[in-house]
Amino acid sequence: MELSESVQRGLRTLANASVFDGTSFQALVDVSFWSLLSRQGDPAVLDQPELKHIDQILVKRAHTAAATFILEAVKHNADSSTLSSCLEELSFSAERTEIINGIYQTHKKELDSLLASIGRCPPRVNDVSWRLQYHMKNGHVDKVNEPFYSISLSTENEGALEDIDFTCTVEQLQDLVGKLKDAAKSVEKASQM
After folding, report:
1. What is the spatial distance between Cα 84 and Cα 97, in angstroms, rounded to a whole number?
2. Sheet harboring 124-135: ordered strands across?
3. 18: which residues sit within 8 A by CB, 6+ positions away?
4. What value, to the nearest 5°, has the Cα angle with vertex 13 and ends 7 and 16?
5. Rounded distance, CA 127 to CA 152, Å?
């Protein structure tokens, strides 16, 4: 896993026992996992009584780094050994590595489902309507004399209907049709594998 310099800095701060003692470390790790798994949003990290005595900027930095690390681990489907080696490189003790690893393994399926649910499925095209129009003039040139197409795609996404309207020239329409044919062939080949 590749982590940015700011995430590595935040994790090194979390690994430092002089900044985060055992109780505050456990509290921050718990809050980091809980903030990702909670449907209600971020659980006010700064309001945790175990973290009140620590500089709030360091708490925020460590929380952000821990949450990012957790999500990266899920994204890369990291196993226990990968997680452990990555944390050891960041100066985590064996005990702290074991704590994070244990909580990660406990919630790995939930976190994986969370990442899988993020994003939007592309809309499905139900119908297409088109109309050929002709530009005779525009505001800049007296005579244009070009045909163009007005196209309307009726789409459905998770039960919601939406129309997508656009215009294109004959060349643009030919390019679009060619790309759609290539995409259809690619999908057909992929489905036969």
Report:
1. 6
2. 124-135, 146-157, 160-169
3. none
4. 145
5. 8
State yes or no: pLDDT of 143 exceeds 80.
no
Phi, psi of 156 (to 5 degrees): -135, 130
Taking only the tens place, the pLDDT of each residue in 72-113 is 999 899 999 999 999 999 999 999 999 999 999 999 999 888
Question: Cα separation of 74 and 85, whole Å?
Answer: 15
Residue type for position 15: A
Q: Are 43 and 59 spatial neighbours (Cβ–Cβ below 8 Å)?
A: no
Answer yes or no: are the C-beta atoms of 104 and 86 closer than 8 Å: no
Contact 154, 126 (CB under 8 A): yes
What pTM value is reported for the model?
0.61
For residue 29, with 0-12 CB atoms within 10 Å meaning exposed, 13-18 middle and 19 or more buried, which class applies? Answer: buried
Assign 149 to helix, strand or coil.
Answer: strand
